[in-house]
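At this stage, I needed to go through a protein sequence along with its fold in token form, as given directly below:
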Amino acid sequence: MKKLLVLFIFITICIIILLAVFIRNNHTSSSSSSCVSCHGEIETVSETHKNITCIECHGGNGNTEDKDLAHKDMYGGNNPSNPKVWDKTCGKCHEYEVKRVSSTIMLTNTGIIKNTLAAWGESDNKSLFSQNHIQKAYGDNGSVIDISSIADNDNISADMYRKFCSGCHVGQAADMGYLGVHSSGCAACHFPYGEYGEYAGADKNMQGKYMHSVTHKMQSLPNDDVCLACHNRSGRIALSYKGLYDGNNALVPTKDGFAGPLLTSGLRNVRHFQADIHHAAGMECIDCHTSNEIMGDGYYYENMYDQIEISCESCHGSYTEKPKTKKETKENTGSQNIKSAYAKNIPFGSSVVLTDKERPFSNVYKKNGEFILISKRSGIERNIKIITGTKEHNIKGHNNMECYSCHSANVVQCYGCHVEYDERQTMYDYVKDKETKGAFKETEDIRTFFPFPLAYNQKGKISPVTPGCQTFLTHIDENGNVISEDKMVEFRGRPQMKYAPFFGHNIGKKAVDCEVCHSNTAFLGFGDSLFSYQNKTLTSSIKCDNCPVPLNAVYSIENGKFLSKSDIVRDGSKVLEKEIMLKSIDAMKCLICHNNADEKYYNRDIDYEKILNDSNHKHLID
């Protein structure tokens, strides 16, 4: 009898243990057993999370069948990775990643805030602001930086930032419409919200619920649709990369009664133009952009371009130098410690290509003398074309240009941003998380994508620039009085247009034809200018009703005088000098006949007076 009793107890204990393991592997434990009574079919987050209970991430009460009590005190509502609570959730296991993201410019938005205030003439040029409250921030030299919250700024431009720009932001969940819905915190990138922000997984109690990820399964490597959820507005780089354009179409054509055939956030339909060559080859955003760029490196940067660590030259080299490499000799550094989710890894001991900050790429290396990029999700190896020593990249004067000045197929430009600010109405403030006084409306005059103006960027290189922003303000106070009507806001002490250096993410294999660039004054910043021989005037014809200057002209020539109509909104950036423009136009004297990249002519300075007077050319101009 005793033996049978012992055997019964042993079998009972085994059954209990097996049940506990089974329940734990299905998202629950004795402390969260009630979760599966409603959500038993919900997806496992990932293999590495399968033994973590529901309440360890979500909080709440796992010991009650009462829905309200079970959901009480859950972290972050639907999203336990919300930055307001992530130190209690994701940060318990991923402290390193959370602290990096806490200072990344994708969370702080310091660059956007700084340049918005500057573009509206409301910056004191001293204070730095962040979307979120930062307890302590470190500059790239290790010094502690004082950061203020944009919530405490009362300027109109700060209010507009909080009610418009801040919605596309890692720290803020937002619904911008079709393909523009995203969560906040870690989930903003790692839990895609799909087309409409509705759950479509196996959990029947969650199906169709709004502002939820498509499923409960985490995506370790974000796909391009995740990037598109935010980067489909302003610069529209995620649209341009895929070869999509949303300008001047009046929601025509339509499909099934809605704008179509393709739709994106804010009820905009898109049409096709040439896709970026990298996208056409099957590369995703994450194949180029590094973890340090996207999630930050722990330092606080004022500007996006300070956090970015890659350029075209990083992988393709320059005329004089091939990409820099370094042999990996340690298993816990560089490319070896951040790629567990990759389909294929760089073999240990390889010569790994370095970024512009001389950090190793995690997916670009040298193999048998060739430079190879491994696509992170697919594992496909791609040979990289190296431009070092190629004659077309040794044109005199082009060494001071960004690669994408010539190789951009399209650069989206929005001209004439008319803003109405009405103090009689209210609007939702994403940062303050409530409706506040003052509502904004925006309209634009025209959008183009080719040709595009050029100017100097923050690195001192000639690059494409795009309007940023051409603001005309109508301000109505709480009594209905019109304080200003379509008034151009001042920048650096005077009413003028603003442009920003810009990489449009729409690269073509074939560069802009030399004669097209050197003969079209739009590239020099004169817009769609028309020249009047009578009064020696070259100025744009595109204007809005109350605009004192042309919309798409950085410069103009009026009565024979060269005038700058605009400025560049970036530290260290500036407009082109008149001398550079004249040299560019002079090149057409040779390009008419010699229109290929012949080193015999174009790898040195040309004395046009001397050359055009020789026996080979004189008869052509007599």
